[in-house]
Amino acid sequence: MIKFLELIGFDNELDADLKNVFNEVLEKGIFINGANVVEFESQFSDISESNYCVSCGNGMDALTILLRSLGLRNGSEVLVPAQTFIATYFSIIHAGLKPIPVDVNESDCLLSIDDAKKRITKQTTAMVFVNLFGFGNSHKEIFDFCNSNNLELVYDSAQSHLTEYDNNLLTSSGSHAVSFYPGKNLGALGDGGAILTDRRDLNDFCIKYRNYGSIQKYKHEIIGINSRLDEVQAAFLNRKIRKLNSWTEIRRKQANAYLSNINNKKIKLPHIQPKLNPSWHIFPIRVKNRKKFQAFMFDKKIETLIHYPYSPVTCDALSNYSYNLDSFPNALDWEQHEVSIPIGPHLDIDSIQKIIDAINEF
Ligand SMILES: Cc1ncc(COP(=O)(O)O)c(C=O)c1O
Q1: Is 6 among the domain residues?
Q2: Nearest-atom index, ligand 1, CA of 181
């Protein structure tokens, strides 16, 4: 079976390294706020070219903490794409704000700025732009739009480690929430997350807020939460981060092979803007008869997944918002037709070729 994802077992050297790292942390006996966390924050801000990095418990907390740091009016409205992982919406709600779905682009499933223009009201105070699948857009264009409408802007960059636009890393400007969920391009062996920001004021708030509102032990300056990256996860991430550049290059080569060689009228490939260099967390295709396609691929011993079969606007947990589904045609198209095909450093060139051949045969 060609697996969608494999977290261990494809790089023996790394597996051995991770075991050693675990032993080192065990022997030291420091499990919270240790040297590995400090080292990871420094390594991750360096590789991301961001001024500041604040680690925390997971990607959803990163977004909640970041939104809290902006001090937005309680209950005010936040523009957010109608198709994303549900954590984007829940974090807005946990930050005391109201998610306002915006339809996505037909071409790449990113928040449509044209549609955002129609959704702004006097209550709108911010936008969460999701770099879904590892895609992204011009920071300047999004920032200018938000700035001219007096909106704060934050990015959900859970899937876009090292994505570039116009030769710049997306994370080199603005404020981003990142996830290190195990399956992410840089994943821990458990939960983990981080806030990257170019703003010192936000950095200072986030450092306190994630740790009971405290920098100095038992001195609590603000009401905070407990959301810290564990020392052992930071130690794993310090090893795995050494692979991030080469793993991202592998994903890009595989994605280029798919883009150049998949040739089947029944399959819609994602449209990539010329200046975008995605991190390819996910390679999404669209196909009308998705059920049949997934069964066909399964018969060929190729695992596929769907991201995401229930978009936030159709999600049971948010049904009390009574979204008008007719106004999100593109999000619903992605919800109903998207299939994610395997991509990542666990796959060799033969597997990629088998996947291409199977898709072309469908
Ligand atoms: C787009 C998006 N946002 C937020 C999250 C939340 O991250 P976590 O699972 O680390 O809380 C994820 C990943 O799970 C994600 O894919």
Answers
A1: no
A2: 10
- Residue 113's nearest CA partner among 161, 63, 153 is 153
| CA 70 and chain centroid, separation | 20
Which residue's CA lies nearest to atom 12 of ligand 1?
158
Q: Would residue 1 count as lying in a domain? A: no
Choose which residue among 56, 60, 185, 307 to substitute to test ligand 1 binding: the one with the highest number of ligand atoms within 8 A of its C-beta: 60
Q: Are 217 and 279 members of one domain?
A: no
Closest CA to 148 of 169, 175, 127: 127
* Residue 88 CA to ligand 1 centre (angstroms): 7
**Count of domains in the chain?**
2
159 and 182 fall within a common domain: yes
Contact indicator for 313, 101 with CB cutoff of 8 Å: yes
Question: How many angstroms separate the CA atoms of 348 and 282, rounded?
Answer: 17
Domain assignment of residue 312, given as a range: 244-361
Q: Where are the beta strands (DSSP E) in 224-359?
A: 267-268, 276-277, 283-287, 338-341
- Same domain flag for 230 and 275: no
Question: Which pTM value belongs to this model?
Answer: 0.98
pLDDT tens-place values along the chain, 362 residues long: 999 999 999 999 999 999 999 999 999 999 999 999 999 999 999 999 999 999 999 999 999 999 999 999 999 999 999 999 999 999 999 999 999 999 999 999 999 999 999 999 999 999 999 999 999 999 999 999 999 999 999 999 999 999 999 999 999 999 999 999 999 999 999 999 999 999 999 999 999 999 999 999 999 999 999 999 999 999 999 999 999 999 999 999 999 999 999 999 999 999 999 999 999 999 999 999 999 999 999 999 999 999 999 999 999 999 999 999 999 999 999 999 999 999 999 999 999 999 999 999 99
Residues touching ligand 1 (Cβ under 6 Å) are: 58-60, 84-85, 87-88, 130, 156, 158-159, 179, 181, 191, 193
In a domain, 45, yes or no: yes
Ligand 1 centre distance from Cα of residue 27 (Å)? 32
Nearest CA to ligand 1 atom 8: 59
CATH code, domain carrying 337: 3.90.1150.10
